[in-house]
Amino acid sequence: MAELYGHGVYRFLLSRQWVILTLIALLLIPTMIRLGFWQMHRYDERTARNDLVARALSADPVPVERLTSPGKRITTDERYRRVTATGRFDTDDEVVVRRRTNADDEVGYHVLTPFVLDDGKVLLVNRGWIPADGPSQTEFPKIPAPPSGEVTVTGRMMPDETTEASGIKDLEGLPDRQIMLISSAREAERLDAPVLGGYVVLTAPVPGNGSPQPIGKPGDEDAALNFAYAIQWWLFSAAVPVGWWFLVRREVRDRAGAAAAQDPAEAEPASV
Question: Where does it mainly reside (predicted)?
Answer without folding.
Answer: membrane
